Amino acid sequence: MELRHLRHFVALAEERSFTAAAAREHIVQSGLSTSIRALEKDVGALLFVRGTRPIRLTAEGEALVPSARRTLEAADNARQTVQEVHGVLAGQLRIGALQTTGHTLPFASWLAEFALGHPRVEISVQQLAASEMVRLVADGGLDCALVALLDGHPAGLDVVPLLAEPIVLACPADHPLARETAVGLVQLTDERFVEAPPAWAIRSEIDRAFAAVGLHRRIACVVNEWSMVLDLVAAGVGIALVPQGLDFTLHPRSTEALRLVPLQGTSLERRVDLVVPSGHAATPAARRFTELVRSKLSAP
Protein backbone atom coordinates (compact mmCIF):
# COMPACT_ATOMS: atom_id res chain seq x y z
CA MET A 1 0.00 0.00 0.00
CA GLU A 2 1.49 3.32 -1.11
CA LEU A 3 1.05 6.65 0.62
CA ARG A 4 0.13 8.34 -2.65
CA HIS A 5 -2.75 5.90 -3.09
CA LEU A 6 -4.04 6.78 0.37
CA ARG A 7 -3.64 10.49 -0.37
CA HIS A 8 -5.61 10.13 -3.61
CA PHE A 9 -8.27 8.12 -1.78
CA VAL A 10 -8.71 10.80 0.91
CA ALA A 11 -8.87 13.53 -1.73
CA LEU A 12 -11.65 11.70 -3.61
CA ALA A 13 -13.48 10.90 -0.36
CA GLU A 14 -13.47 14.59 0.60
CA GLU A 15 -14.09 16.12 -2.83
CA ARG A 16 -16.64 13.47 -4.00
CA SER A 17 -15.62 14.24 -7.58
CA PHE A 18 -12.90 12.71 -9.75
CA THR A 19 -12.41 16.05 -11.51
CA ALA A 20 -12.00 18.04 -8.27
CA ALA A 21 -9.86 15.38 -6.58
CA ALA A 22 -7.54 15.07 -9.61
CA ALA A 23 -7.15 18.86 -9.73
CA ARG A 24 -6.41 18.95 -6.00
CA GLU A 25 -3.72 16.27 -6.37
CA HIS A 26 -2.36 17.78 -9.62
CA ILE A 27 -2.80 14.57 -11.62
CA VAL A 28 -4.96 13.55 -14.56
CA GLN A 29 -8.25 11.79 -13.88
CA SER A 30 -7.04 8.55 -15.44
CA GLY A 31 -4.08 8.54 -13.03
CA LEU A 32 -6.45 9.07 -10.10
CA SER A 33 -8.66 6.20 -11.25
CA THR A 34 -5.64 3.91 -11.57
CA SER A 35 -4.48 4.88 -8.08
CA ILE A 36 -7.91 4.16 -6.56
CA ARG A 37 -8.13 0.78 -8.29
CA ALA A 38 -4.65 -0.12 -7.01
CA LEU A 39 -5.70 0.73 -3.44
CA GLU A 40 -8.91 -1.27 -3.79
CA LYS A 41 -6.82 -4.23 -4.95
CA ASP A 42 -4.52 -3.82 -1.93
CA VAL A 43 -7.37 -3.76 0.60
CA GLY A 44 -9.48 -6.34 -1.22
CA ALA A 45 -12.68 -4.28 -1.39
CA LEU A 46 -14.42 -1.62 -3.45
CA LEU A 47 -14.10 1.75 -1.76
CA PHE A 48 -16.44 3.85 -3.92
CA VAL A 49 -19.84 3.28 -5.53
CA ARG A 50 -19.29 3.87 -9.21
CA GLY A 51 -21.77 5.77 -11.36
CA THR A 52 -23.13 8.06 -8.63
CA ARG A 53 -22.95 11.85 -8.61
CA PRO A 54 -21.48 12.94 -6.34
CA ILE A 55 -19.13 9.99 -5.82
CA ARG A 56 -20.26 7.93 -2.82
CA LEU A 57 -18.14 5.84 -0.45
CA THR A 58 -18.98 2.22 0.21
CA ALA A 59 -19.19 1.01 3.82
CA GLU A 60 -15.60 -0.23 3.45
CA GLY A 61 -14.54 3.17 2.13
CA GLU A 62 -16.20 5.01 5.03
CA ALA A 63 -14.35 2.73 7.45
CA LEU A 64 -11.00 3.41 5.78
CA VAL A 65 -11.17 7.23 5.81
CA PRO A 66 -10.12 7.85 9.47
CA SER A 67 -7.25 5.33 9.27
CA ALA A 68 -6.07 6.76 5.95
CA ARG A 69 -6.02 10.27 7.40
CA ARG A 70 -4.07 9.12 10.46
CA THR A 71 -1.55 7.27 8.28
CA LEU A 72 -0.97 10.33 6.09
CA GLU A 73 -0.63 12.56 9.15
CA ALA A 74 1.87 10.15 10.70
CA ALA A 75 3.93 10.28 7.50
CA ASP A 76 3.74 14.09 7.45
CA ASN A 77 4.76 14.22 11.11
CA ALA A 78 7.75 11.96 10.44
CA ARG A 79 8.84 14.22 7.60
CA GLN A 80 8.30 17.31 9.71
CA THR A 81 10.24 15.87 12.66
CA VAL A 82 13.30 15.63 10.44
CA GLN A 83 12.73 19.14 9.05
CA GLU A 84 12.34 20.57 12.56
CA VAL A 85 15.87 19.44 13.34
CA HIS A 86 16.90 22.02 10.76
CA GLY A 87 14.54 24.60 12.24
CA VAL A 88 12.13 24.63 9.28
CA LEU A 89 8.38 24.13 9.77
CA ALA A 90 6.54 22.96 6.66
CA GLY A 91 3.44 21.02 5.68
CA GLN A 92 -0.10 22.21 6.33
CA LEU A 93 -2.25 23.65 9.09
CA ARG A 94 -5.99 23.02 8.81
CA ILE A 95 -7.85 25.17 11.32
CA GLY A 96 -11.53 25.26 12.16
CA ALA A 97 -12.93 28.54 13.47
CA LEU A 98 -16.25 29.92 14.61
CA GLN A 99 -17.80 32.54 12.37
CA THR A 100 -17.49 35.15 15.13
CA THR A 101 -13.95 34.29 16.23
CA GLY A 102 -12.56 37.47 14.70
CA HIS A 103 -15.04 39.64 16.61
CA THR A 104 -13.80 38.82 20.10
CA LEU A 105 -10.32 37.37 19.55
CA PRO A 106 -7.39 38.59 17.39
CA PHE A 107 -7.57 35.36 15.37
CA ALA A 108 -6.53 37.03 12.11
CA SER A 109 -3.49 38.56 13.84
CA TRP A 110 -2.47 35.19 15.27
CA LEU A 111 -2.90 33.58 11.86
CA ALA A 112 -0.92 36.32 10.12
CA GLU A 113 1.97 36.08 12.60
CA PHE A 114 2.06 32.30 12.19
CA ALA A 115 1.91 32.50 8.38
CA LEU A 116 4.68 35.09 8.17
CA GLY A 117 6.83 33.14 10.61
CA HIS A 118 6.33 29.83 8.78
CA PRO A 119 6.00 30.60 5.05
CA ARG A 120 6.35 26.94 4.07
CA VAL A 121 3.18 25.95 5.93
CA GLU A 122 0.02 25.90 3.82
CA ILE A 123 -2.87 27.20 5.94
CA SER A 124 -6.57 26.58 5.40
CA VAL A 125 -9.44 27.79 7.59
CA GLN A 126 -12.90 26.24 7.71
CA GLN A 127 -15.95 27.73 9.43
CA LEU A 128 -18.27 24.92 10.52
CA ALA A 129 -20.59 24.03 13.39
CA ALA A 130 -18.67 23.52 16.64
CA SER A 131 -19.70 19.88 17.04
CA GLU A 132 -18.54 19.09 13.50
CA MET A 133 -15.18 20.79 14.06
CA VAL A 134 -14.55 18.87 17.30
CA ARG A 135 -15.33 15.62 15.47
CA LEU A 136 -12.98 16.54 12.62
CA VAL A 137 -10.13 17.36 15.01
CA ALA A 138 -10.65 14.00 16.74
CA ASP A 139 -10.79 12.14 13.39
CA GLY A 140 -7.86 13.97 11.79
CA GLY A 141 -9.88 16.06 9.34
CA LEU A 142 -8.70 19.26 11.05
CA ASP A 143 -5.43 19.91 12.92
CA CYS A 144 -7.02 22.20 15.51
CA ALA A 145 -10.10 24.36 15.95
CA LEU A 146 -11.40 27.38 17.81
CA VAL A 147 -14.79 26.21 19.04
CA ALA A 148 -17.46 26.72 21.67
CA LEU A 149 -17.40 23.50 23.70
CA LEU A 150 -20.62 22.35 25.33
CA ASP A 151 -19.91 19.00 26.95
CA GLY A 152 -16.67 19.31 28.87
CA HIS A 153 -13.28 17.98 27.84
CA PRO A 154 -13.39 15.80 24.69
CA ALA A 155 -11.40 12.55 24.99
CA GLY A 156 -8.04 12.62 23.24
CA LEU A 157 -8.01 16.39 22.81
CA ASP A 158 -6.22 19.16 24.68
CA VAL A 159 -8.32 22.24 25.41
CA VAL A 160 -6.91 25.77 25.73
CA PRO A 161 -9.57 28.17 27.15
CA LEU A 162 -9.59 31.42 25.18
CA LEU A 163 -12.55 33.43 26.44
CA ALA A 164 -15.99 33.35 28.06
CA GLU A 165 -18.46 36.13 27.29
CA PRO A 166 -22.08 36.79 28.34
CA ILE A 167 -24.97 36.14 25.98
CA VAL A 168 -27.26 39.18 25.79
CA LEU A 169 -30.59 40.15 24.27
CA ALA A 170 -30.52 42.01 20.95
CA CYS A 171 -33.79 43.80 20.13
CA PRO A 172 -34.95 46.72 17.98
CA ALA A 173 -34.33 50.13 19.53
CA ASP A 174 -38.09 50.82 19.68
CA HIS A 175 -38.96 47.47 21.30
CA PRO A 176 -40.45 47.69 24.84
CA LEU A 177 -37.64 45.49 26.19
CA ALA A 178 -35.04 47.99 24.93
CA ARG A 179 -35.90 50.23 27.90
CA GLU A 180 -35.12 47.52 30.45
CA THR A 181 -31.82 47.47 32.36
CA ALA A 182 -31.92 43.65 32.36
CA VAL A 183 -34.42 40.95 31.34
CA GLY A 184 -35.17 37.40 32.46
CA LEU A 185 -35.98 34.50 30.16
CA VAL A 186 -39.59 34.45 31.32
CA GLN A 187 -40.04 37.94 29.82
CA LEU A 188 -39.15 36.57 26.39
CA THR A 189 -41.70 33.76 26.10
CA ASP A 190 -44.17 35.73 23.95
CA GLU A 191 -41.51 37.06 21.61
CA ARG A 192 -40.54 35.89 18.14
CA PHE A 193 -36.87 34.85 17.83
CA VAL A 194 -34.29 35.04 15.09
CA GLU A 195 -32.03 32.07 15.77
CA ALA A 196 -28.76 30.44 14.75
CA PRO A 197 -28.97 26.86 13.36
CA PRO A 198 -29.56 24.01 15.86
CA ALA A 199 -26.06 22.59 15.16
CA TRP A 200 -24.39 25.75 16.51
CA ALA A 201 -23.12 25.51 20.08
CA ILE A 202 -24.68 28.83 21.12
CA ARG A 203 -28.09 27.63 19.90
CA SER A 204 -27.72 24.43 21.95
CA GLU A 205 -26.76 26.49 25.02
CA ILE A 206 -29.83 28.71 24.61
CA ASP A 207 -32.15 25.74 23.99
CA ARG A 208 -30.89 24.11 27.20
CA ALA A 209 -31.43 27.28 29.22
CA PHE A 210 -35.06 27.62 28.14
CA ALA A 211 -35.72 23.89 28.63
CA ALA A 212 -34.19 24.00 32.13
CA VAL A 213 -36.84 26.49 33.28
CA GLY A 214 -39.69 24.88 31.32
CA LEU A 215 -40.09 27.72 28.83
CA HIS A 216 -40.85 27.58 25.10
CA ARG A 217 -39.97 30.24 22.56
CA ARG A 218 -41.31 30.97 19.10
CA ILE A 219 -38.69 30.86 16.35
CA ALA A 220 -39.53 33.09 13.42
CA CYS A 221 -36.38 32.62 11.37
CA VAL A 222 -33.16 30.55 11.41
CA VAL A 223 -30.06 31.91 9.65
CA ASN A 224 -26.41 30.87 9.73
CA GLU A 225 -24.77 34.30 9.63
CA TRP A 226 -24.62 36.73 12.52
CA SER A 227 -24.78 39.81 10.30
CA MET A 228 -28.11 38.56 8.93
CA VAL A 229 -29.36 37.85 12.46
CA LEU A 230 -28.63 41.45 13.40
CA ASP A 231 -30.20 42.84 10.23
CA LEU A 232 -33.39 40.82 10.76
CA VAL A 233 -33.62 41.91 14.39
CA ALA A 234 -33.10 45.54 13.38
CA ALA A 235 -35.87 45.13 10.79
CA GLY A 236 -38.29 43.96 13.48
CA VAL A 237 -38.57 40.30 12.48
CA GLY A 238 -37.82 39.19 16.03
CA ILE A 239 -35.38 39.39 18.91
CA ALA A 240 -32.19 37.34 19.34
CA LEU A 241 -29.77 36.16 22.00
CA VAL A 242 -26.26 36.93 20.82
CA PRO A 243 -22.67 36.95 22.15
CA GLN A 244 -21.96 40.28 23.82
CA GLY A 245 -18.63 40.48 21.98
CA LEU A 246 -20.10 40.67 18.48
CA ASP A 247 -18.42 43.57 16.68
CA PHE A 248 -21.40 45.74 15.82
CA THR A 249 -19.22 48.19 13.91
CA LEU A 250 -19.04 45.49 11.23
CA HIS A 251 -22.80 45.91 10.75
CA PRO A 252 -23.35 49.70 10.51
CA ARG A 253 -26.86 49.31 9.08
CA SER A 254 -27.99 47.51 12.24
CA THR A 255 -26.01 49.33 14.94
CA GLU A 256 -28.27 52.35 15.48
CA ALA A 257 -31.44 50.28 15.18
CA LEU A 258 -30.45 47.76 17.87
CA ARG A 259 -30.20 47.67 21.63
CA LEU A 260 -28.31 45.13 23.73
CA VAL A 261 -29.88 44.24 27.08
CA PRO A 262 -28.17 42.05 29.72
CA LEU A 263 -29.90 38.87 30.90
CA GLN A 264 -30.70 38.27 34.56
CA GLY A 265 -31.50 35.09 36.44
CA THR A 266 -29.36 32.96 34.12
CA SER A 267 -25.65 32.42 33.57
CA LEU A 268 -25.79 32.05 29.78
CA GLU A 269 -22.37 32.58 28.24
CA ARG A 270 -20.49 31.69 25.08
CA ARG A 271 -17.07 30.09 25.51
CA VAL A 272 -14.36 29.82 22.90
CA ASP A 273 -11.63 27.20 23.30
CA LEU A 274 -8.76 25.99 21.15
CA VAL A 275 -8.91 22.20 20.77
CA VAL A 276 -5.95 20.21 19.45
CA PRO A 277 -5.10 16.48 19.55
CA SER A 278 -3.21 15.50 22.69
CA GLY A 279 0.53 14.84 22.70
CA HIS A 280 2.16 13.41 19.59
CA ALA A 281 -1.21 13.04 17.85
CA ALA A 282 -1.01 16.77 17.10
CA THR A 283 0.78 17.79 13.93
CA PRO A 284 3.97 19.88 14.31
CA ALA A 285 2.18 22.87 12.79
CA ALA A 286 -0.75 22.53 15.21
CA ARG A 287 1.66 22.29 18.16
CA ARG A 288 3.51 25.41 17.01
CA PHE A 289 0.25 27.33 16.48
CA THR A 290 -0.94 26.30 19.96
CA GLU A 291 2.35 27.53 21.43
CA LEU A 292 1.82 30.88 19.68
CA VAL A 293 -1.73 31.21 21.04
CA ARG A 294 -0.62 30.31 24.58
CA SER A 295 2.13 32.94 24.41
CA LYS A 296 -0.37 35.59 23.32
CA LEU A 297 -2.78 34.69 26.11
CA SER A 298 -0.06 34.92 28.76
CA ALA A 299 1.36 38.21 27.43
CA PRO A 300 0.59 41.27 29.60
TrEMBL record:
- What UniProt keywords apply to this chain's record, in alphabetical order? DNA-binding, Transcription, Transcription regulation
Checking CDD domains in the record gives: PBP2_LTTR_substrate (cd05466)
Top-rank taxon, per record: Bacteria
Q: Which GO terms describe its molecular function?
A: DNA binding; DNA-binding transcription factor activity
Q: Where is the HTH lysR-type domain?
A: 1-58
Which cellular components does GO assign to this protein?
A: cytosol
InterPro entries with a match to the protein in the record: HTH-type_LysR_regulators (IPR050950), LysR_HTH_N (IPR000847), LysR_subst-bd (IPR005119), WH-like_DNA-bd_sf (IPR036388), WH_DNA-bd_sf (IPR036390)
Question: Which Pfam families does its entry note?
Answer: HTH_1 (PF00126), LysR_substrate (PF03466)
Its family? Belongs to the LysR transcriptional regulatory family.
PANTHER family from the entry? BLR3139 PROTEIN, HTH-TYPE TRANSCRIPTIONAL REGULATOR YBHD
| Protein's UniProt name | DNA-binding transcriptional LysR family regulator
Species assigned in the record: Kribbella pratensis
Phylogenetic lineage: Bacteria, Bacillati, Actinomycetota, Actinomycetes, Propionibacteriales
